[in-house]
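U., I forgot to send this yesterday:
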Amino acid sequence: MITFHVISLFPEVMESYLKTSIIGKAREKKKIDVCFYDLRDYLNDSRERVDGRPFGGGPGMVIRPEPVIRAILKAKGRKKNTKIIFFDRKGRRLTNDYARTISQGYRHVILISGRYEGIDARVYEVFKDEDIERLSIGSYILTGGEIPSLAFIDCVSRQVEGVLGDYDSLEESRAAGRSVYTRPQSFSYKGKSYSVPSVLTSGHHAKIDRWRERKG
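Result:
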């Protein structure tokens, strides 16, 4: 089983997604597990702020290093086979191949979900000798790291044996084009008929695979 340890200021926004559908069932079956670490729980004093103004000036706020470090240490404990992920749009791109490597090589993955202008860079320096990765889910900027964390968990979980139930459900392992169809075989809309391509109802699997490859 692989366990995802998510460090976040807003863990509650992730829980509803991770309770539903395939990921929720995978958690119930103990194929994966997800643990949350609210950064506010790792302040020395409840009156302290999690964030502070950036040195050198500039807009926004930066998450202070101490609570992040404490949360990482709590998540890591004495665990082995542990990977620490920092989300960074300039980092290594998340791919299915990388997700497969993670699913097969690690039992624990710590995901640092940043907010505001980011996390104090000294956190990365503190853990630079650990098994860490700067990872990107795309060349764009989001308001927080919760969505990248969800994308990572979803992508990696699909690669865990038994999560999808059927290996053929892995789109990357079969000739799956962008165009998919289901019942009814034909329907009308505003006087125009829309039908499933005849090759898909032919029963000729080799032709179907070739058609899907062309469409893909």
